[in-house]
TrEMBL record, chain A:
<comment type="similarity">
    <text>Belongs to the ATP synthase subunit s family.</text>
</comment>
<dbReference type="InterPro" id="IPR032675">
    <property type="entry name" value="LRR_dom_sf"/>
</dbReference>
<protein>
    <recommendedName>
        <fullName>Distal membrane-arm assembly complex protein 2</fullName>
    </recommendedName>
</protein>
<comment type="function">
    <text>Required for the assembly of the mitochondrial NADH:ubiquinone oxidoreductase complex (complex I). Involved in the assembly of the distal region of complex I.</text>
</comment>
<comment type="subunit">
    <text>Interacts with incompletely assembled mitochondrial NADH:ubiquinone oxidoreductase complex (complex I).</text>
</comment>
TrEMBL record, chain B:
<dbReference type="GO" id="GO:0005743">
    <property type="term" value="C:mitochondrial inner membrane"/>
</dbReference>
<dbReference type="InterPro" id="IPR036188">
    <property type="entry name" value="FAD/NAD-bd_sf"/>
</dbReference>
<dbReference type="GO" id="GO:0032981">
    <property type="term" value="P:mitochondrial respiratory chain complex I assembly"/>
</dbReference>
<keyword id="KW-0679">Respiratory chain</keyword>
<dbReference type="GO" id="GO:0016491">
    <property type="term" value="F:oxidoreductase activity"/>
</dbReference>
<keyword id="KW-0812">Transmembrane</keyword>
<dbReference type="InterPro" id="IPR006076">
    <property type="entry name" value="FAD-dep_OxRdtase"/>
</dbReference>
<dbReference type="Pfam" id="PF01266">
    <property type="entry name" value="DAO"/>
</dbReference>
<keyword id="KW-0249">Electron transport</keyword>
Length: 222, 486
């Protein structure tokens, strides 16, 4: 009875990890009694208790949707593209270099998972709806390794949160375009560039402002 | 259809009245009339505020369970947590009495608005940590249906404290305590300071402590309005008036050792209305003194300190108003976006304000040179003589600056040990204090409100133990000294 409850639990939580579902499907054909035992054995081999399974799945859920990860020297690894937990175990010792969490519903507490990655070089938090100034104040923990950061399109980030990016002295590329909560994007970009002299800051589109001026001139004399 | 017919009937009826007087507005909407009638019936029923002789809607109710004297951030925080922690919805009737609804002299809105965890007492650090968490999730705590979310304009830039050779050892100890409690603070040497903030002149600085997270400054007016809105929606009653008298009863009891002790209990609070002699006695069970700079006067009204000096009856509440100035200046070559709130070893502090190279800051005057707290007039010579020289020494860019404006506000200064007073009075058993925070009340208000509400509802502190801040320490002489005061 316990075995079947555990397997149901996994199915309900498991939108991203197709691999475990594939595994249980493969085992399905052997009959319900044997399915339970094999699945449990498999789980018992890799996790010490149910809490560890839940934690593992929660970490995967945090980086869900458009999640892509890149390990040192390897290609981007996307979820849902058939990477089983066995293969993940191979990469356990390999540090994570880049995380693309665009569009994720990651929040202040969820950042714990990202800040534990001490060799992270590139972080993309584009269009994350819950990333705000408080979250940016936590990024100082990645100061030693972070070289590329993208905050484009985050609705809650304002110039006050951008002020605490000065801890990230190794930052080389910063994208702060399309931030609706920033009051004066042009001035903010200049101040951020002064704050981070070694960093290339990509901010709001200058050309857009110029084009509007030309159009007005064209319509003027008429 | 019936409604339309009735409406037509009414209109025709009124037109045909002609000479009759018509009360109220010119439009006759059915729903408006129904709600008016409902209100009148409700006020006439028992329990309502209807008085057939004259309008009493501006007066406070005749009975309330808790009367909070003072509607600033601390008073509202206590009201919020009382309503949040009450066991049954609507169980406690809370009345907040605020003398000035424009808050023109309230310390809350005149504050610089900083929040830090860099204190020396563990209790202060815990209070600030919880308050930072409250502010971070303010839209979960203070959400009101159909109202827009609050934007506190929080700047997470941190505080930077500078220390000389003499103060370096104390700063290291303090940082150790802060780290133990969970604050994220970094110690920096003068060289690291020069690398990070090249605009600081590090001469004379031996050590610096820099708060990395949960420290910065925010808009206190927004917090106050958010609390008011939420607290109103939870059913707390507001009254614009001044507390002029407490009517109390005494019981004479004997201690174990046979001494006679007279325990008082406040039965009634007399609230005088603004600009009139009219007053309303409010029967109450508990009174909370959250009057800020005027808490000392309220305590005297209740009879605290009326007795031979050296006894518990003769121990006054040592909270008095102290005037502090804040100056806003413009300096085009000043520190950039990364500037934290810098607190120099001379006592001068400043922070960035906005994006236009404006800064605000000040310094606490020395004990002997305390300005007269009679009015909130600003002394501009104080800036020229006491604030500018150490400021320009520490940040050479500030040698050329132009003062744009200035204001003054009160600290509810605790002359005993510059830390807050919370909890009940030992002799006046139903008066609770939430005052005396000497310049760091705003940043600790959410946590202090919760602690006082717990004390009132459960009889003891449950989350943060604030026993070092009880009133009895004034009699016993146990100072809870805070070393990091701005």
């Amino acid at each position: 009875m316990a075995a079947s409850r555990v397997s149901l639990h996994l199915m309900a939580r498991n939108s991203g990890t197709s691999s475990i579902r594939a595994l249980s499907r493969a085992v399905d054909s052997e009959g319900s009694q044997r399915k339970g035992r094999t699945l449990l054995q498999f789980l018992a081999d890799y996790f010490c208790d149910v809490e560890a399974v839940r934690e593992y799945l929660l970490r995967k859920q945090v980086l869900k949707v458009h999640q892509k990860n890149r390990f040192q020297g390897n290609e981007w690894i996307r979820s849902g593209h058939g990477l089983s937990p066995l293969e993940f175990r191979k990469f356990q010792e390999v540090p994570v270099e880049a995380v693309d969490a665009s569009g994720c519903a990651i929040n202040y507490q969820g950042l714990d998972n990202l800040l534990a990655l001490k060799e992270l070089q590139s972080l993309s938090l584009q269009h994350c709806p819950h990333v705000d100034d408080w979250c940016l104040s936590r990024l100082h923990q990645l100061a030693d390794s972070l070289q590329e950061l993208s905050l484009a399109g985050c609705p809650r980030v304002s110039e006050r949160g951008l002020a605490c990016l000065h801890h990230l002295q190794n930052l080389r590329r910063l994208d702060i375009s399309d931030l609706p909560a920033v009051s004066s994007p042009g001035l903010t970009q200049i101040l951020v560039e002064e704050m981070l002299p070694n960093c290339e800051v990509r901010g709001s589109d200058w050309a857009r402002g110029l084009k509007l001026g030309l159009e007005e001139q064209a319509q003027g004399p008429k | 259809m019936l409604r339309r017919a009735l409406r037509l009937g009414l209109r025709r009826g009124l037109l045909s009245r002609g000479l009759g007087t018509r009360r109220g507005g010119s439009t006759l909407d059915w729903t408006g009339r129904v709600s008016n009638i409902k209100k009148k019936i409700q006020s006439a029923l028992p329990g309502g505020a209807w008085n057939p002789l004259y309008d009493t809607s501006h007066l406070p109710p005749e009975q309330a369970d808790v009367v909070i004297v003072g509607g600033g951030v601390l008073g509202l925080s206590v009201a919020y947590w009382l309503k949040r922690l009450e066991k049954r919805r609507g169980a406690i009737r809370v009345l907040v009495v605020e003398r000035d609804h424009t808050y023109s002299q309230a310390s809350t809105v005149l504050s610089v608005g900083g929040i830090r965890q860099q204190f020396s007492l563990p209790e202060n650090i815990q209070l600030s940590l919880f308050s930072a968490e409250f502010l971070r999730n303010i839209n979960e705590y203070l959400a009101v249906v159909d109202e827009p979310p609050l934007d506190l304009q929080f700047n997470p830039s941190g505080y930077l404290f500078l220390a000389s050779e003499k103060g370096a050892a104390a700063m290291e100890n303090n940082v150790k305590v802060q780290r133990q409690e969970g604050a994220k603070v970094r110690l920096m040497s003068p060289e690291q300071l020069r690398n990070k903030f090249p605009w600081i002149n590090t001469q004379g600085v031996a050590l610096a402590s820099y708060g990395l997270e949960n420290e910065g400054w925010f808009d206190p007016w927004c917090l106050l309005q958010g609390l008011r809105r939420k607290v109103r929606s939870m059913g707390v009653l507001f009254c614009q008036g001044e507390v002029t008298r407490f009517v109390s009863s005494s019981t004479h009891m004997e201690t174990i050792s046979g001494e006679e002790v007279s325990l008082k209990r406040i039965q009634e609070v007399q609230v005088k209305m603004d600009c009139s002699q009219e007053y309303q006695p409010v029967e109450c069970a508990i009174v909370v003194n959250a009057a800020g700079a005027w808490s000392g006067q309220i305590a005297e009204l209740a009879g605290i300190g009326k007795g031979p000096p050296g006894t518990l009856q003769g121990t006054k509440l040592p909270v008095e108003p102290r005037k502090r100035y804040v100056y806003l200046w413009h300096c085009p070559q000043g520190p950039g976006l990364e500037a934290p709130l810098v607190a120099d070893l001379s006592g001068v502090y400043f922070r960035r304000e906005g994006l236009g190279n404006n800064y605000l800051g000040s310094c606490s005057p020395a004990e002997e040179e305390e300005p007269d707290p009679g009015s909130l007039e600003v002394d501009h010579d104080f800036f020229q003589e006491k604030v500018w020289p150490p400021l320009a020494w520490r940040v050479p860019a500030f040698e050329t600056l132009k003062v744009r404006s200035a204001w003054a506000g009160y600290y509810d200064y605790n002359t005993f040990d510059q830390n807050g007073v919370v909890g009940p009075h030992p002799l006046i058993i139903n008066m609770y204090f939430a005052t005396g925070f000497s310049g760091h009340g705003l940043q600790q208000a959410p946590a202090v409100g919760r602690a006082v509400a717990e004390m009132m509802l459960e009889g003891r502190f449950q989350t943060i133990n604030l026993s070092p801040f009880l009133f009895t320490r004034f009699y016993l002489g146990e100072k809870a000294l805070e070393h990091c005061i701005l």
